Amino acid sequence: MAQSQAVTAPHRLGFLATLRVDRWWLEPALVLAGLGLFFGYLTVSIFLDSWAFEIGPYLSPVYEPKLAEEFAAPWFSPAMLIVWGPVGFRATCYYYRMAYYRSIFLSPPACAVGDALPGYTGESKFPFIIQNVHRFFMYVALVFVPLLWIGAVRGFHHPDEGWGMGLGSFILVLNAFLLMMYTFSCHSLRHFVGGGLDCFSQSAWTRTRKSVWDWVTTFNERHRVWAWASLIWIVLTDLYIRLVANGHITDPNTWSSF
Ligand code: FES
User: Fold this and answer.
1) Are 93 and 205 in contact (CB under 8 A)?
2) pLDDT at 58 over 60
3) Are 65 and 147 in contact, with CB atoms under 8 Å apart?
């Protein structure tokens, strides 16, 4: 019989200690750059309400739904009334948790790589136990799905000139679609629609839940893709509408006023 060998786990050897010989650092480095770039842009965008964020039928999704423009001040942006929902949803998302635990907290930086912080306690204690509020942010995010689609449909209707279409209309549609798919692929939504059941075939209701659960499971398998695609696209959508609204580029469209 082969003798058992005692192998010391990398996290006990020290920070960044590992037996891995591949480029394990590449993914956390790229994720760090991506999170910094895209979330950094969105943070700045929330406070950049003095740089026009709407024109004709287009409203930046960062400000959707537009609730209180009259309260705008240097220290207060109308986006602040609504961003707590999407920000809380993303910040507590299971995928983003893994992403920033690895790339920002380095805890651990990657599988089988030494942890920056000894004494891993997971999310069982304060403050990370607060991450459990994700399911409640999921309910809030579900409200934003139809609101974003209303904004996308409004992107085809100029307030003065009526129905038409432009490049921005389709950019807003894709933005609503990607954010919907990010929400519909949520792990908490998957549990919400299909969790807690011992037998899916008990009744028509549980069979219906099984069907919905199958759909959400299919979406959920690509949750990371939806997370990144929706994040990148909302940044590009906001940037595009601002560039058009401030006269830096021209939107090809069927209206005559811009
Ligand atoms: S797990 Fe990512 S949005 Fe819910």
Assistant:
1) no
2) yes
3) yes
Tokens of 121: 């306690």
Q: Which atom of ligand 1 is nearest to the CA of 183?
A: 3
Q: Is the CB of 181 under 6 A from ligand 1?
A: no
pLDDT, tens only, 138-147:
999 999 999 9
Query: Does the beta carbon of 154 sit less than 6 angstroms from any atom of ligand 1?
Result: no
Nearest ligand 1 atom to the CA of 188 is: 4
Q: How far apart are CA 190 and CA 110, in angstroms?
A: 26
CB of 255 within 8 A of CB of 244? no
Q: Is the CB of 148 under 6 A from ligand 1?
A: no
Could you tell me the distance, in angstroms and rounded to a whole number, from the CA of residue 246 to the centre of ligand 1? 34
pLDDT at residue 71, rounded to an integer: 56
**Cα gap 69→127, rounded to integer Å:** 34
How far away, in angstroms, is 185 Cα from ligand 1 center? 7
Using DSSP's 3-state secondary structure scheme, residue 60 falls into: coil
Taking the model in full, what pTM does it have?
0.90
